Fold:
Amino acid sequence: MSKVKPPYFYSWSKQTSPLTFDVDSSTDFHYISNNNKVLDFSSTSFQASFGLKNAQITDAITQQSEVLPLATPKATFKLKDDVSIKLKNLISKDIQGRIFWTSSGAESIENALKIARDFTGKDVIVSRQRSYHGASLGALSVGGDWRTQAVSTVDQWTLRIPGPETDPEAKEARKIIEGFGPEKIAGICLEVITGGNGVIVPGKKWYREIQDICDDYNLILILDEVICGFGRTGNDFGFHHYQDVLKPDLICMAKAITGGFFPMGAVWVNESLALNYEHKVLPCGLTNYAHPLGLAATNATLNYYQEVKENSLDKRILFFNDHLSELKNISSVKEIRSIGLLAAIEIDSNLSWKDFIQKRIFVYFSNNILILAPALNMPFVYLEEGFKKINTILGD
Structure:
């Protein structure tokens, strides 16, 4: 008997053969599916960095709903001021900037692109050939994976360069940019560390050359921290691994900014760019701009993240990477790349995503690349559980 078609779409799927699994409820770190516990070992879509349940964050949303559950984007209130300052300080206490609030990572990218193009008066954005920046039209246009090929995008405004995996000193990137004409380029948009496309961790030489290119030709540097932000890589933000090299103009955030409990994102705008809009209209706006419930969730998340960081984040990272090293002995494992609590395992096998679900572990798996990104506060016993399951699956 065929299953009844749902009254909704499955994302990124042929509707006749979507990859799904039934979910009834959740514990702090497991989905409950048909009375079975399925361990979330990828923070769902990289956003559930503090578990599938977190009372500190959800209670903050509930409490805010009783005070100011909704507000016009033009409203000013203490929470808006406080959370914006707190987020700015997490990015940098030394470099001045301002926050533009959004509802998602794609919206953050869209508004960063808009600001870069408006500020420079130019349209073209440079991006990596292997990348993903979101599902909206502009964000897809600067992406570089199969999702970009699935729809018509504004490719005439995108110039793609190779990443550090094939161009470790960005020499080819410079040739492409100079050959195209840097005078036609607004800026460069990069995931600081590539997430779903394989956890590519650039060396400092690559980023030093990228920054030099931006300095040489006055290009705006847009950093996509949607996956890397809020402790995922072991630092507050991915670019902090390169802070002696990188001087970002715009930083895009989302996902773990609220632990995934409320749709929220943000763009940090360097003060030099922000000053451009003192006497000129900022061409950006959203209905749910600086939503009070999202701000409350962000505030609680930032507080909770500090607790995790001060308690045992470093120990979890060591534990995680020790267990990753043990996987190198499995014959199907070709390569492992990792940073913080983020890892890509390239394998040579006929495994599918369903093989992991059947072993009751939820992971990101595509094109024989397994991405691991457990919650930053996951207990060691569950980290151990996850690696035992992965060992079993990859060793079969």
Notes: The longest helix spans residues 292-311. The mean pLDDT is 95. The chain has 13 helices and 15 strands. The CA atoms of residues 53 and 348 lie 35 Å apart.
